[in-house]
Write a structure and sequence with these properties.
heterodimer, A: 20-stranded parallel sheet, eleven-stranded parallel sheet, 31 strands, disordered N terminus, B: six-stranded antiparallel sheet, 16 strands
């Protein structure tokens, strides 16, 4: 049993590493034992250490995980340090981080069987210059999320590229204080998704060739809900034209091909200064949660959404799928640049919606808009006379303060 | 620089190991409480005869009513408490153990599951030890001669050939978890915690050397458990395979042990909103009519975690029956399916309305 001798040697190495007091750089090279050494280095790193993954291709058979605070995991570039999980036989993701003040940077994660890089319950987690990719292109068999912080706070995602996620490329869930910037999401079902989260700034990203570009969602029956204070600005959301390849049952399976930015059931969401073009269903959709649910604490309608100063190119020419059809049956084709389903709660329908909860649209001349005036959780048409008069939705909301992260030296 | 440090420490650790290898006849409280785990399992002194898993004095074997499935592995469980100390009873969660306590579990495979006492090969022994500042989890891999087991921080893969579960012997790779993977299941609000020794799972008979007795009573009589009520006043789950017990209780007991270490409000899967602990009484949290959040392709094209009356429409079954990473549940600790459990859950979901 050679493995046992190797294990003994590995153990000695391990003890050596734990004996270190000062911050150290633990360098892992892509040799035969790289999988085991990488696992060990991540387990035995001490706070302050850097685990440096040397350039090379790592064929990993098991997931990696980090549970030590104050550790940096660094590669030597997203084309040079490549962690391939093609032969993965265990674990639900490629790399899982469950500790605080962790920086992940300059490496690539390819072909994980489940999610790519996940953080759960982390405070101050940084994903920087990472590439997460399913190399076979968009396929339902690909993992769900590329970069996946959940139940985390102070989340910084920058310079990340995700391709091929069968749910969302960059997915931030049930988290708070979030910055997603200078990143690129392509060929995913959802490019960037902020779900059940508070205080997020999503800016200077490119979301292209996805099914949908940027989604801001709130879903029922989760420990954290009531997402609010989200700014989506200065992004390029263009040519999102990949047919939806999400496995059925997932909420993103409803997203039609050619969705630019979609806001669903969130509060205080500001969408501005984005460039949208080539999104064939619609550029901006503001909608209620369309499924039935049992959750007394959940508010299914969007609240206080302010869409302004975006640039719109061609779009809406080929509305896709059930949602596309539901919209275009009412709005006609091409679908207007901005679509609000117009769903309100029943009491509000018969009375009024308070100022801070309304939908405001203030866009350059020539921008088209429709309020579909559907009032039902199931997207059933209630009224066949949609409102296309954009001038009736003018107004504004106070903008949420920029998100400040303790680990962020500046934009 | 790293290499010099490595080499120096390598020498130190080899010397240390050599000094520590002494035949152990009694449990070493020092080994349990040491800052670093011993390199060899024998240094704890938990076994009088490790080959036959005969415990040393003061080490009490136990069994749980419904155990976790781990690729059909046989499991030998033991608890040790330092002289004069006892665990504190808790009706819901794992008992509160004092510093110096240890929970020991050996995983083994017989050559043939139809003869589980014959040709048993010990694979690994997992040790949960209680320090003042919390639990530590370590896995020890048995050597080929079955003489001793060696600490494995990074886990290990072991090729197994197992007869008696299919017409032909089944070959598979068994995973010894690494340290983080231990915590992947044994996490309660981010801290390592024991899973098995809960009142509801210990409230049953065990065949001790001097006769069968209820485990709660035995632990209390042995002075290692304080505050336990009479067994009839303590909660109990049935053995999941006990067809005399109610179907729902069996299914819920199975879910409790196999899923709820993660799928609970304090567990690693808290973000899923799917909570499968035995006492969970919110039907949606239990998965009934609940849509998935982050299941990805694990949804298998199904809409609900549990669709009442429709096992084949339920994501839960899809994931439990799968052996594919990224789909299968649990994510760790299993490479084979457990068909009988699938059938139990099928039967249960079929009865739901």
């Amino acid at each position: 049993m050679r493995a046992i001798f190797r294990a003994a040697a590995g153990l000695a190495v391990s003890l050596a590493l734990t004996a270190a007091v000062a911050a150290a750089e633990l360098r892992v090279e892509p040799d035969d034992d790289a999988n085991e050494k990488l696992i060990e280095a991540l387990i035995l790193a001490q706070p302050g250490d850097t685990v440096l993954i040397a350039a090379g291709r790592y064929e990993l058979t098991d997931g990696l995980s980090l549970d030590v605070d104050d550790v940096t995991v660094r590669g030597e570039g997203t084309d040079r340090t490549v962690l391939s999980f093609k032969g993965q036989t265990g674990a639900g993701e490629g790399l899982l981080v469950t500790s605080d003040r962790v920086v992940l940077e300059d490496f690539a994660v390819e072909d994980t069987r489940g999610d790519g890089v996940k953080s759960k319950g982390s405070d101050q987690i940084t994903f920087r210059n990472l590439r997460v990719e399913w190399t076979g292109g968009p396929k339902a068999e690909n993992g769900a999320y590329g970069v996946y912080p959940v139940s985390s706070k102070n989340v910084l995602i920058e310079g990340v590229l995700v391709r091929g996620a069968s749910d969302a490329g960059i997915y931030v869930g049930q988290s708070e204080d979030i910055v997603v910037r200078n990143s690129r999401a392509e060929f995913n079902v959802a490019g960037i998704e902020i779900e059940n989260s508070f205080r997020a700034d999503v800016y200077k990203n490119v979301a292209t060739r996805n099914t949908g570009g940027i989604l801001v969602f709130d879903l029922p029956n989760l420990p954290v809900q009531g997402g609010h204070d989200i700014r989506v600005f200065d992004n390029d959301v263009v040519d999102n034209d990949t047919p939806n390849f999400a496995p059925e049952g997932n909420i993103v399976a409803i997203v039609p091909k050619g969705m630019g930015i979609m806001v669903m059931a969130n509060r205080n969401v500001h969408v501005f200064n984005n460039r949208l073009s080539g999104n064939a269903t619609t550029h901006v959709l503001i909608a209620a949660y369309p499924e039935d649910y049992e959750d007394d604490d959940y508010l299914f309608v969007p609240r206080g959404v302010y869409v302004h100063d975006n640039e719109y190119g061609e779009g809406g020419g080929e509305p896709d799928g059930e949602v596309g059809k539901t919209i275009s049956d009412v709005s006609g084709t091409p679908v207007p640049d901005i679509v609000w389903d117009g769903v309100t709660t029943i009491p509000e329908y018969f009375s009024w919606v308070s100022a801070e909860n309304r939908i405001y649209v203030d866009e350059p001349d020539g921008t088209t808009f429709v309020n579909l005036k559907m009032i039902s959780q199931l997207l059933l048409p209630w009224s066949t006379s949609p409102d296309t008069d954009i001038s009736g939705y003018k107004g504004s909301l106070p903008e949420p303060a920029p998100v400040k992260l303790p680990q962020d030296g500046g934009a | 620089m790293g290499i010099a440090r490595l080499a120096a420490a390598l020498l130190v650790s080899v010397t240390l190991c050599a000094a520590l290898v002494v035949p152990a006849l009694a449990v070493s409280d020092a080994a349990i409480l040491a800052e670093r785990p011993p390199k060899l399992l024998s240094e704890f002194g938990f076994f009088e005869d490790s080959r036959t898993q005969k415990p040393a004095e003061g080490v009490v074997p136990f069994a749980i009513n419904t155990p976790l499935f781990s690729d059909n592995a046989l499991k030998f469980r033991f608890v040790y408490l330092p002289e004069g100390k006892a665990a504190r009873y808790d009706p819901q969660e794992a008992f509160a153990f004092p510093a110096g306590a240890a929970l020991i579990k050996t995983f083994a495979f017989p050559a043939d599951m139809r003869e589980p006492d014959k040709d048993v090969r010990l694979i690994e022994t997992r040790v949960l030890i209680r320090h003042e500042d919390g639990w530590q989890a370590w896995a020890y891999l048995w050597d080929e001669a079955q003489q001793d087991a060696v600490l494995k921080i990074a886990g290990a893969k072991v090729d197994i050939e197992l007869g008696g579960i299919a017409p032909e012997p089944v070959r598979f790779t068994y995973s010894v978890p690494n340290k983080n993977q231990c915590k992947g299941c044994h996490a309660f609000n981010g801290e390592i915690a024991p899973l098995g020794p809960k009142a509801r799972n210990l409230n049953g008979e065990f065949a001790y050397a001097d006769g069968a007795a209820n485990q709660l009573e035995h632990w209390s009589a042995a002075g290692i458990l304080q505050g336990a009520p009479a067994p009839r006043d303590a909660p109990a789950v049935p053995a999941w395979g006990d067809e005399a017990a109610p179907l729902e209780a069996r299914a819920r007991a199975w879910l409790d042990v196999n899923c709820a270490h993660c799928h609970r409000r304090e567990g690693p899967a808290s973000n899923s909103g799917l909570f499968l602990t035995y006492g969970e009484d919110d039907p949606v949290a239990l998965g009934i009519g609940k849509r998935p959040v982050a299941a990805g392709r694990g949804s298998g094209g199904r809409e609900f975690d549990i669709k009442p009356g429709d096992p084949d429409g339920s994501i839960l079954l899809y994931r439990i029956e799968s052996t594919e990473p990224g789909v299968m549940m649990p994510e760790l600790g299993r490479g084979l399916p457990q068909p009988d459990a699938g059938k139990l859950l099928r039967d249960w979901i079929a009865t739901l309305r």
